From TrEMBL:
Listed name of the protein: Nucleoside hydrolase
Top-rank taxon, per record: Bacteria
A Pfam short name: IU_nuc_hydro
Recorded GO MF terms: hydrolase activity
Keywords: Glycosidase, Hydrolase
Length: 313
C-alpha cells in the first residue's frame, strides 16, 4: 500500500479527491493537513474532519496548517466556485471530532520522517504548508517517496487570472520554494486537469450512490457543477484535485516533460504564473535564463487521457 499525506483546502473537488483516496485499496491515508485556499483554514479543517467522520475514518488525524500565504494576507477564498462553506453550501453540521494540536507542517515532516521513502505527499491547495515543512526539515527532500501537486499552468492560461492557476496564485512564494526543492515532484496543472472533465451524466449517476460520504459529496457537487458549466462552458465539472491521485494508480494515462520551473512572485498581472524554462544546461547559462539556473527539473504532466481517468474515479 502507498502511504498518503493529503494537504488540502476542501473545496468540492478536494472532497471528491479525498473520497477517492479513502475508497481505494491501493492507498493508506496517514493524515490530512489543511491550508487556507478555497476557504479560511479553520473552515478547511472543519470540512476535512467532517469528510473523515462521514467516511467512518475519524481515526485519520487532521492537522491544521497555514492561515495565510508566506507573504501577505488570505485573499478571501473562492465562495463563488465552492460555496460559502467550501462544500457547495450544503451546511452540514460539524463532526464531533477535533484536529490534533500539532501544526500541519510539523505533522507532515514527522510522518514523512517516520516512514522514509514510503510516503507520497499529495498537495491539493496552496503550497504554504509544504514550504513551511521544508523550512522545518530540509532533509524531507530525501525522505519523501514522491510529491504530487495539483497546481499551476505550464503551457496554458490560468483560471484565477489569465496568468495564474488558483492554488499557485494563492501563495506564489511558497510555490516557488516547493517547485525549487530537489525532491521527486510531479506537477498536475491546468494543462491536464482541464482535460479531466467529468460529464453531467456521470455526476448524475454518482449522485445516486448511498452511504454518508457519497450522499454528502453528491449534495455538494451541483453548486460546483453550475460554476463549471456557466463559467467554463463545459458539461459537468473539472476534477482538478483527483487528477494527481489518478496518476498514482494509472501513470500510463499521462504524458510528461521535464523542465526547471519558476513562479512569478511579482505583484503585477503575471503574478502566480508557472514558467518552465528549457532544461538544456547550456541554454541555462544565458543571462536571460539565470533565474532558472540551478533549479531542479520538475516533472510536468502535459498530456492525459481524460476520459480514461474519469472512468477510474
Ligand atoms: C484548484 O483550485 C481550487 O479551487 C480547487 O480545489 C483546485 O485545487 C484548481 O485551480
Ligand atoms: Ca483544492
Amino acid at each position: 500500500k502507498r502511504l498518503l499525506l493529503i494537504d488540502t483546502d476542501p473545496g468540492v473537488d478536494d472532497a471528491m479527491a479525498i473520497q477517492f483516496a479513502l475508497g481505494l485499496p491501493q492507498f493508506d491515508v496517514q493524515a490530512l493537513t489543511t491550508v487556507f485556499g478555497n476557504v479560511a483554514v479553520e473552515l478547511a479543517t472543519t470540512n476535512a474532519l467532517r469528510l473523515l467522520h462521514l467516511a467512518g475514518r475519524a481515526d485519520i488525524p487532521v492537522a491544521q496548517g497555514a492561515a495565510h500565504p508566506l507573504a501577505g494576507a488570505f485573499n478571501g477564498g473562492a465562495a463563488f466556485v465552492h460555496g460559502d462553506d467550501g462544500q457547495g453550501n450544503t451546511d452540514y453540521p460539524p463532526a464531533p471530532t477535533q484536529a490534533v494540536a500539532q501544526p500541519a507542517a510539523e505533522l507532515l515532516a514527522e510522518v514523512i520522517s517516520r516512514h522514509p521513502g514510503q510516503v507520497t505527499l499529495v498537495a491539493l491547495g496552496p503550497l504554504t504548508n509544504l514550504a513551511h515543512a521544508l523550512r522545518l526539515r530540509p532533509g524531507l527532500v530525501h525522505e519523501v517517496a514522491e510529491v504530487v501537486v495539483m497546481g499551476g499552468n505550464a503551457f496554458c492560461a490560468g483560471n484565477a487570472t489569465p496568468a495564474a492557476e488558483a492554488n499557485v496564485l494563492s501563495d506564489p512564494d511558497a510555490a516557488d520554494v516547493v517547485l525549487g526543492a530537489d525532491w521527486p515532484l510531479t506537477l498536475f496543472g491546468l494543462d491536464v486537469t482541464q482535460q479531466v472533465n467529468m460529464p453531467g451524466a456521470v455526476l448524475d449517476e454518482l449522485a445516486r450512490l448511498t452511504g454518508p460520504l457519497s450522499a454528502y459529496v453528491g449534495q455538494m457537487v451541483p453548486f460546483y457543477r453550475r460554476f463549471c458549466e456557466r463559467m467554463r462552458q463545459i458539461d459537468g465539472i473539472f476534477v482538478h484535485d483527483a487528477t494527481p491521485l489518478a496518476y498514482l494508480i494509472a501513470p500510463e494515462l499521462f504524458r510528461f516533460v521535464h523542465h526547471p520551473v519558476r513562479v512569478d512572485t511579482s505583484p503585477g498581472i503575471g503574478r502566480g504564473k508557472t514558467w518552465p524554462a528549457p532544461s538544456d544546461p547550456a541554454q541555462l547559462q544565458r543571462p536571460a535564463l539565470r533565474p532558472w539556473l540551478g533549479r531542479p527539473n520538475v516533472k510536468i504532466a502535459v498530456g492525459v487521457q481524460g476520459s480514461a481517468v474519469v472512468s477510474r474515479l
